[in-house]
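Narrative of accomplishments. A recurring question from our advisory board has been how the design workflow behaves on a single, concrete structure rather than in aggregate. To address it, we present the structure tokens for one chain from the evaluation set, followed by the sequence designed for it. No filtering or post-editing was applied between the two.
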């Protein structure tokens, strides 16, 4: 566990149990020992051919833990409740979940359900997000906010006003000045009194990667002058009382509480000024930005870590708002936050298999010796001199010089190969010779490549797009010291499809030898080598693409239960099939299937049995997921038919 720093980034949800497997504590620090879930047991269960009535699940797999979601929500609420109580703050905290972090139906529905005792609402940034937020909240959560952010047209604004008619507490946040006229016009037409917010562009700037939305030149929000114009316009039409919320967003992954205090303090001053100008303000919405410590370093100097926890975050916010309001004798507002990453990151684990590993070839004297003899005869005089110098340097023990001559010799041989005067076998022999020299000297790259049954572009897009690191760890065999180091190479035909940077500044990951030796992992009923990507519950699923037509993973939902296994799989959905991903690109799998079948008949497969076999093989290919069918998933994949 210490090798992978699991206790640092994983607590209180992930640890290693006595079997050497990752253990999930679904209720965080309140989890009782018998409630812990062994992740490998989950893998074994869903790998059983009979799992879920023969539904069959292929990897990669997202395992969602709704109990973790509940615990995150409750922990956030209780951090604010405690800060409010201890500081004698005169109002309450009422958060919203920005659905863009993970729009999965069950994630959103869980959040609405688990958050209803404390009026937790939703934030939307587009029309489909608004539609989903409206339909989730209209089921009976009248006091929860629905905060509407993002670029808006007349249709978006009409929808938000309709939501208000449906008794959803919907706030339209003005992000562009032009939106105000639309809100005034449409609300009059629909006969609805809108709840309006303004998004302020703060001067406070967060300098990390996620801070580009902050500062005066940020993409979103209104400048001070624009805010004043909004106030004046609303006043003129007798709607200044509708301006009820002040919003800002410093950026995701706010690194430190000092920056947070600075930003919230500035916004609280704007809030007080707007109250002075007569706005009906009652909510300060501090946006997102509550960070996640992806590497467990608790550092405020990095994009993947933060130097605070939930309690410090809440305390800082409450303090900054209270201080500004007290100085101006302004009634304490409701504090709303739009924390996304902090709510959903921990709730899911992406599990994928390493299917094979390739070491850099391990040459022996035996393998290249005979080749070398022939090679020497083919070499030019210059190359032969290099070889002589190389052996002489080796005898003298001058290893740096050896390396130099080995490299020079190799380059000459490559040139000779290109000219046709060195054979393929001899070129291979020289590669081996150079590798042996490097190994003896100890500079050899002995990092292996582990081929994983995954698409990085689909499942860890932020790694590729913005270099975001997530903890990646084998989910079993953690009681055995890993014998090798490796990088992960995905299935896509793309050289960017590899993970070669890991938390802790590592360029390779300690990994175990695949059982069955170098090369293939032998799977079968959960017998493969499984890795987990943790803390990836936010953003990755929606950002992931279809590169090489690899679709999303299978998804299961696992709840803690007091039954024999300690858990129950309450939902299982196979990932998109080849047919599904083809359909997403406008192809018509049914027609393709028919055309291929017809062609097969034309090609002479007249025998009834041969024809049926061919058709069922084709059908299987359309129905199975695009990922490799490994030994572990073979039985289940075939079960689809
Ligand atoms: N609110 C707004 C307006 C955002 O732009 C974002 C994300 O960048 C969020 C909330 C969520 O931020 P986070 O996931 O950092 O909490």
């Amino acid at each position: 566990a210490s090798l992978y720093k699991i206790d640092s980034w994983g607590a209180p949800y992930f640890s290693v149990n006595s079997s050497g497997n990752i253990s999930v504590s679904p209720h965080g620090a309140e989890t009782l020992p018998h409630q812990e879930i062994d992740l490998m047991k989950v893998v074994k269960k869903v790998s059983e051919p009979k799992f879920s009535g023969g539904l069959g699940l292929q990897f990669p797999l997202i395992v969602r833990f709704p109990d973790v979601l509940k615990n995150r929500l409750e922990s956030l609420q209780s951090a604010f409740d405690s800060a409010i109580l201890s500081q004698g703050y005169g109002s309450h905290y009422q958060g919203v979940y920005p659905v863009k972090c993970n729009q999965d139906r069950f994630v959103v529905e869980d959040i609405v359900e688990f958050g209803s005792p404390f009026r937790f609402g939703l934030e939307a940034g587009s029309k489909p997000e608004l539609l989903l937020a409206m339909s989730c909240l209209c089921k009976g959560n009248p006091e929860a906010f629905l905060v509407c952010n993002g670029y808006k047209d007349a249709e978006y604004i009409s929808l938000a006003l309709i939501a208000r008619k449906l008794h959803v507490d919907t706030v339209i946040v003005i992000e562009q000045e032009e939106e105000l006229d639309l809100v005034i016009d449409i609300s009059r037409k629909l006969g609805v009194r809108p709840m309006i917010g303004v998004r302020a562009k703060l001067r406070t700037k967060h300098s990390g990667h996620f801070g580009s939305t902050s500062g005066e030149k940020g993409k979103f929000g209104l400048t001070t002058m624009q805010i004043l114009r909004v106030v004046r316009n609303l006043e003129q039409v007798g709607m200044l009382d509708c301006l009820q919320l002040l919003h800002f967003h410093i950026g995701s992954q706010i690194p430190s509480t000092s920056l947070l205090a600075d930003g919230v303090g500035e916004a609280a001053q704007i809030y007080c000024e707007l109250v002075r100008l007569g706005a009906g303000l009652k909510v300060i919405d501090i946006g997102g930005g509550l960070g996640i410590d992806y590497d467990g370093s608790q550092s405020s100097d990095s994009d993947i870590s933060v130097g605070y926890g939930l309690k410090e975050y809440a305390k800082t916010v409450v303090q900054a708002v209270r201080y500004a309001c007290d100085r101006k004798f302004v009634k304490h507002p409701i504090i709303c936050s739009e924390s996304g990453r902090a709510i959903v990151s921990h709730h899911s684990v992406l599990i994928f298999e390493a299917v094979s590993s390739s070491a850099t070839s391990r040459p022996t004297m035996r393998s290249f010796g005979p080749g070398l003899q022939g090679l020497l005869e083919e070499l030019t005089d210059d190359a032969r001199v290099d070889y002589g110098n190389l052996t002489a340097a080796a005898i003298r023990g001058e290893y740096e010089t050896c390396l130099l001559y080995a490299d020079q010799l190799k380059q000459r041989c490559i040139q000779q190969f290109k000219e046709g005067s060195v054979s393929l076998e001899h070129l291979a022999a020289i590669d081996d010779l150079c590798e042996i020299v490097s190994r003896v000297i100890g500079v050899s790259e002995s990092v292996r490549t582990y081929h994983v049954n995954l698409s990085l572009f689909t499942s860890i897009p932020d790694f590729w797009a913005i270099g975001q690191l997530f903890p990646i760890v084998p989910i079993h065999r953690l009681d055995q010291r890993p014998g090798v180091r490796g990088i992960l190479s995905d299935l896509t035909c793309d050289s960017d499809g590899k993970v070669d940077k890991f938390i802790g500044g590592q360029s390779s990951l300690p990994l175990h030898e695949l059982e069955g030796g170098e090369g293939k992992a032998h799977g079968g009923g959960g017998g493969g080598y499984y890795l987990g990507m943790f803390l990836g519950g936010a953003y990755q699923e929606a950002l992931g693409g279809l590169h090489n037509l690899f679709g999303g993973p299978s998804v299961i939902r696992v709840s803690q239960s007091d039954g024999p296994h300690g858990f129950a799989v309450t939902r299982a959905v196979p990932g998109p099939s080849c047919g599904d991903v083809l359909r997403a690109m406008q192809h018509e799998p049914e027609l393709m299937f028919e055309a291929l079948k017809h062609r097969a008949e034309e090609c002479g497969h007249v025998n009834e049995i041969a024809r049926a076999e061919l058709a069922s093989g084709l059908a299987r290919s359309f129905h199975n997921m695009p990922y490799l069918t490994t030994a572990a998933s073979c039985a289940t994949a075939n079960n689809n038919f």
